[in-house]
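[Meeting: bench + compute handoff]

Bench side (C.D.) handed over the final construct sequence. Compute side (W.E.) agreed to return the predicted structure before the next meeting so the bench team could plan truncations. Sequence as handed over:
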Amino acid sequence: MLGSAAETLALKALTRVAGDPGALQRFLLLSGLELEELRNRAAEPELLAAVLDFLLGDDDLLRDFCASAEIDSKVVHAARRALPGAAPD
């Protein structure tokens, strides 16, 4: 997956997280970000990678996101690998 496609998918994931108050609170708590900082940094590849890490760490959230986006979770994993900080295969 190309970086731009991965970033687009991660932005969709961020929209999903932001639309769920509980998930958003957990993400902010775990990331140490304030809401305004999240807004300001939303397009940064490193932040988008963190969003996908968060999504991949929550099976229910991942399942809901994949169902709403009509994608397989393998696509999310591929997107994560295309963004900065991914663990080597």
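W.E. noted at the follow-up: The helical segments are 3-18, 21-31, 35-41, 45-56, 59-69, 73-82. C.D. will use this when planning the next construct.
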